[in-house]
C-alpha cells in the first residue's frame, strides 16, 4: 500500500461512552505538511493535524466504525501516545491493553496518560510551541517532568500482580500572548493516577508525584525551597544528578524497603541573611533540605497506602 493511502496515527484517545467505548485517533494531514508552513492554533491555512472519533461496544467496533468512514487505511506504526479518560481508567485499562497487544504495529514503549475528565477534551488543547499535539505529551517523558509510564510497564505490572502509577493530565484555560484568542485550553500536569489490578483507584497530587519521581530515579532536576534556620526566610536550591537506590530487607518478621537517595544541590536564590560559607550554617540548611526531600518521598508512599495493595515501585522485589 502506498504511503499516500495511509493515515499515520500519532495519538490514541479512549473514553467511556453510552455505547461502551469511544475511540479518538489523531493523525497528521499530509496534504498540509508543507515545509516552512506555521502550524498550530489560529492559522488561516488550517491545522496540519486532525482527529476522528468512533464509538462501539468495544474498541474493535469503534475502530471499524472509524475505518469505514475514512478515505485512508489506518496505520498504528507511528503511535506514541495513548490517553485514557478518567471514567475509562476507573472502569479498567484491560480492554486497551488487549487491543494494543493484538495490534503488532503499536510499539510497547508507547506512553500512557490519564486525564482528570474526558480524554477527548485534549483535542481542543492549544498547540503553540510544538508541531503536533502529541509532541507536548512525549516531551513530558523526554524531560522527566512527569512519571514515565509505557504500555510495556503497565502490562508488566498487571502480569506480576503489582500496581502502577500513570501521569495525570488536565486542561486549564490560559491566555497566550502571541495568539488571537483571549484564552485557550492548555495541557498541564495534575499529578499521577494510581492503578491496582488494571483499574484507577486513586491519585497523587503534583508534589507527591514529584516524590514518586525521586523514588523511581526518573527526576532529572528539581527546585526546592526551605526555610532558613537563622531568620525563617526562604532559601531555594536546584537539585541535580539525582540517584536512588532501593534495597529490600528482611527483619522483624516482615519485609522492609530501604530507600537511599543522593543528589547535588546548589543555591539559586536566597532571601535570608544566612552565611552559607560557614560550615555549621551549611549543615543546618542541608538538614532542612534533607527533611524536605524525605517528606516528599514519604508523602508519595503513605498517602496511597490505604488505596492500593502495594506501590508499583516495589513490583520487582
From TrEMBL:
Any single GO BP term: spore germination
GO-annotated cellular components: membrane
Residues annotated as signal peptide: none
Domain Spore germination protein N-terminal: 2-170
Chief location of this protein within or outside the cell: membrane
Domain (Spore germination GerAC-like C-terminal) ranges: 191-305
Keyword Signal included in the entry's annotation: yes
Location relative to the cell: Membrane
Alphabetical keyword list: Germination, Lipoprotein, Membrane, Palmitate, Signal
Domain of life: Bacteria
Membrane topology of this protein: Lipid-anchor
Family: Belongs to the GerABKC lipoprotein family.
Protein name listed in UniProt: Uncharacterized protein
Origin species: Paenibacillus rhizosphaerae
Amino acid at each position: 500500500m502506498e504511503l499516500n493511502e495511509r493515515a499515520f496515527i500519532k495519538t490514541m484517545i479512549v473514553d467511556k461512552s453510552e455505547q461502551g467505548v469511544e475511540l479518538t485517533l489523531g493523525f497528521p494531514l499530509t496534504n498540509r505538511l508543507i515545509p516552512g508552513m506555521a502550524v498550530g492554533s489560529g492559522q488561516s491555512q488550517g491545522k496540519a493535524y486532525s482527529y476522528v472519533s468512533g464509538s462501539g461496544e468495544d474498541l474493535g467496533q469503534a475502530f471499524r466504525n472509524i475505518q469505514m468512514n475514512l478515505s485512508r487505511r489506518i496505520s498504528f506504526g507511528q503511535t506514541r501516545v495513548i490517553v485514557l479518560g478518567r471514567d475509562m481508567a476507573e472502569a479498567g485499562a484491560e480492554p486497551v491493553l488487549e487491543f494494543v497487544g493484538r495490534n503488532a504495529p503499536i510499539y510497547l514503549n508507547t506512553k500512557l496518560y490519564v486525564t482528570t475528565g474526558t480524554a477527548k477534551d485534549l483535542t481542543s488543547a492549544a498547540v503553540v510551541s510544538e508541531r503536533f499535539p502529541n509532541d507536548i505529551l512525549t516531551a513530558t517523558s523526554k524531560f522527566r517532568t512527569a512519571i514515565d509510564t509505557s504500555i510495556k510497564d503497565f502490562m508488566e505490572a498487571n502480569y506480576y500482580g503489582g500496581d502502577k502509577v500513570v501521569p495525570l493530565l488536565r486542561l486549564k484555560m490560559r491566555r497566550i500572548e502571541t495568539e488571537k484568542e483571549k484564552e485557550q485550553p492548555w495541557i498541564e500536569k495534575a499529578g499521577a493516577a494510581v492503578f491496582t489490578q488494571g483499574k484507577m483507584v486513586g491519585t497523587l497530587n503534583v508534589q507527591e508525584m514529584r516524590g514518586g519521581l525521586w523514588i523511581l530515579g526518573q527526576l532529572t532536576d528539581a527546585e526546592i525551597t526551605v526555610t532558613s534556620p537563622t531568620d525563617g526566610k526562604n532559601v531555594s536550591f536546584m537539585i541535580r544528578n539525582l540517584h536512588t537506590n532501593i534495597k529490600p530487607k528482611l527483619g522483624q518478621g516482615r519485609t522492609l524497603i530501604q530507600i537511599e537517595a543522593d543528589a547535588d544541590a546548589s543555591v539559586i536564590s536566597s532571601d535570608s541573611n544566612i552565611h552559607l560559607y560557614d560550615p555549621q550554617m551549611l549543615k543546618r540548611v542541608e538538614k532542612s533540605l534533607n527533611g524536605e526531600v524525605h517528606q516528599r518521598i514519604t508523602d508519595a508512599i503513605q498517602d496511597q497506602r490505604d488505596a492500593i495493595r502495594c506501590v508499583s515501585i516495589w513490583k520487582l522485589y
